[in-house]
Each structure stands twice: as C-alpha cells, then as structure tokens.
Amino acid sequence: MSKTRHSGFFQRPAAKTGWWSAGLAILATLMIMVNMLGLNPLEGPSLLVTVYDLTMFASMVLSIVLGVIALTSKRERSWMVWLFLVPVLVFAGALLFMVVERSSYTNHVETAPTPDASIDRLPVVYDDDGSPDGTSALLYLLSEPQVEVMAVSVSYGEAHPQVYIQHLGWMLERYGYGNLPLGAGQDAPLAGSNSFPEPVREASNDFWGFDSGGGSQVYPVQDSAELMVKMIQASNEPITLFISGALTNLANALRLEPGISQNIDAVYIMGGAINVPGNIKGLLPDTLNLSAEWNIYADPLAASEVFASGLELYLVPLDATNQVTLNEKDTAIWRKGGSIADFAADIYDSRMDSWGRNETEIWDLVTAELMMNPEHCAFSRLALEVVTAEGNSEGQTRIVEGTPNVNVCLEPDAEAIKQMLGQVFSARD
Question: Do 58 and 178 belong to one domain?
Fold first, then answer.
C-alpha cells in the first residue's frame, strides 16, 4: 500500500485538489482585480459581462471549497493551497469599501461650497422633465463654479412633476443645496394628449432606481410658471433659462406675465431635430412620426409659443447631441470629484449597463455644457417653426422662410465638450 503524500508550507501541493485550489484562486484574484480597475475586457453585450462575473464568482467559491478540502482531508500545507484566502480578502475589502461609500452617500449631508466672490456667476433657472440625463445636467450646473442655480423646476414629460420634484428636493438637500426654491408644473401639455409611455413615467416615479430617501420628507413646492415669473422679476440681472424637457412651464410663465421676457438673457433648450430623424420611434415602435423629438413632441403648442416669443433662444437638437457620446472611461474621470460627480457618473454607467452598451448619448448634459461654453458649437441662426397639427409630423421643428428666430447648434466640438465635463466634474471637491 502506497503512503499518502502531504506537503509542507514551502513545498508544492502533493494532491490535485491543492493544485486546483491554487489555480482557481489565482484566476479569481486576477478577475476581481480586473473588475476593480475597470479593465473588464467584455464591456459590450451584458450577457458576456454576466458570464465573466459568474466565472469569477465560481472560481472564487471553488477555490475556497477545494482549499478547505485540501487542508482538512488531504492535510496539505503548501503556501499555494493557502492562496484561496487571497480572493476572499480582496473580495471582502472591495465589499467593505462599497458599503462604506454607500453609507457615506446615503447618510452624509454635504455643505455646498462657498462661491468665489471674484468669479462672475451666471444666474440660471433650471427646468427639466425629470429625466436621468436632465438630472445629470443639474449636477453639472451645481458643479460649475460660474453658475448660480436660482431655482429648480420640473416640467411635464418623462416625469410626473409633483413626484419627481420631491426626488430632486431630497438630492439637493443631501448635497447642501436644500435652500433652492422648487417648482413643479402641470402634468399635461397645453393642448393635446402626447405623452411618454407609462413605463417611462413609472421609472421616473422611482427616481430611476436610485436612492431618494424613501419619501421620508416632503419639500415645499411652488407652481413652476409662478416660480419662474417670481425669480425673473426679482433678479437684478437678466436670467438665463436652462430647459431640457417640454416647454410647458416657460410657455405658461409667458402667458402669466409676458413682461418677463425683458429680463431673460437667453434660453438654452435641448430639443428638436432639424436635419436628422426624430426619436419618437425609440419609445413608440409603431409610430409613423419619424421627424419629431420627444421634448418638443410632448407639448408642441408650448414649443411653438416659445419659438414665437422673441426671446434669445439657443437650441441644441438631436443633430448636435447625436455627435457626443460618453463611455465608462469618460465617467471614471468624473469620479475624482466627489459624491456629486459620482452620482452623475452612476447615472450614465447604469444606463450603459441596463442597455447593454459601452457608450451613451448625453442630450441634456451637452446642452448644459454649451450654455456655459457656447464657443464649443458654431450656432446657426435659423427660422424655425413647430408643427402643432395632429399627424405624422406633429412636433417637428422645421426650417421655414422668414426672419431667423432660433440659434441652432448643428456641429458641436464633441472632444471639447467631453474634456470640459471631465474638468468640471473632477474638480468638484
């Protein structure tokens, strides 16, 4: 009968069980480190990412099981067998780090930075329709030292305004901006019944899956049109409006008090499609409307009234935003800037993950960046009108004969925009 072989600490494993445990431990450790460093080679389809993660987890579990067997039943003592502890410690450390970071994000109320008095700051009223992209644009404006956000408002569109503004109220409080006035507009267009699909609006009710305090506090909210009028009339200098949703709130504000146009410096709008197809079909596959963009389509009458208002309008349509995309390498740069930048990155990283893509458009964020750096696009003066009649072109923004009424971005400098986003977000703290 042959004698059972055992290994000492400075020897190689004597049994196959020990070799397998060591090999799987090394594999699991390498895969975990690749993930932690953001170097996963399978950034594409989500199925491949899932297979990678399952392989990593299975390797770690098997290395532990085989390592324990080798130590107990096989009486192995080789240092290679003990390698099964390495992925365990690495995984535990990463998990502890995530828990600490999450706890800090959830429980820590930040203090907004004290503005630099030497910097001229642009007074901005923010109005979005409760989209993830629009929320990231708000985070950018809060991070931009040359912006003074005067009020935050939610319009009709992807969100139910009265619901989503509460999510923003909680977010603003967590980041030290709990004193900003909040507004919510009517939950319907000025005319018609165009609407985002209900699953989209339900997702906005849930703050797109992100933490929003569980509805533990209710924040005071004003009517958006009344809030706009109040802020514009009270300002000692002309106000700039940032609008990345339906133009319902601004149209109602102009109806309520037309004179406010005298104290509006400019209106930056994400919306429309000039020389490219619209994006209605992306959410409504059966539609025959191939020309409209959602922000304009949601309330064509409001957009038509604003386009005819005589205000200094700067439109950033799909023509421009289609040319600017982000990937996780871009958002990784932002994460140097603290929790606000982290949340902006989380918004896009989660979108890419859920869509199974390695890049994403940044419609509203492009508009926010161009508002602060208009030199990053050569705006063209065009005469535009919005089709308000029901039909397959309802909501289309089309060029017509006549006096130009809108400054339109058609050829943005994508690299300059992404570079500035990285600079602003990464310097946040």
Answer: no
Q: Are residues 184 and 310 in the same domain?
A: yes
Partner residues linked to 242 by β-bridges: 126, 268
Task: Identify each DSSP E strand in 181-319 by its residue range.
Answer: 182-184, 222-223, 239-244, 264-270, 313-316
Please say whether the beta carbons of 273 and 317 come within 8 A: yes
Task: State whether 102 and 139 are in the same domain.
Answer: no
**Each residue of 297-333: pLDDT tens digit?**
999 999 999 999 999 999 999 999 999 999 999 999 9
Q: Say if CB 78 and CB 13 are below 8 A apart.
A: yes
pLDDT score recorded for residue 100: 56
3-state secondary structure of 121: coil
**What pTM did the predictor assign?**
0.75
Query: Would the pLDDT of 99 be above 60?
Result: no
Confidence grade of residue 274 (pLDDT, cut at 50, 70, 90): very high
Same domain, 100 and 162: no
Helix (H, G, I), strand (E, B) or coil at 231: helix
Neighbours of 177 (CB within 10 A): 19
Shared domain check, 139 and 87: no
Report how far residue 122's alpha carbon sits from residue 126's, in angstroms, rounded to the nearest whole number: 12
Task: Please name the amino acid found at residue 33.
Answer: M
> Do 91 and 129 belong together in one domain?
no
Closest CA to 402 of 306, 291, 301, 307: 307
Indicate the residue type of 213: G
Report d(CA 204, CA 163) in Å as an integer: 8
Q: Which of 323, 348, 354, 355 is nearest to 333 (CA)?
A: 348
Query: Which of 107, 130, 155 is where one domain is finished?
Result: 107
What is the total count of domains within the chain?
Answer: 2
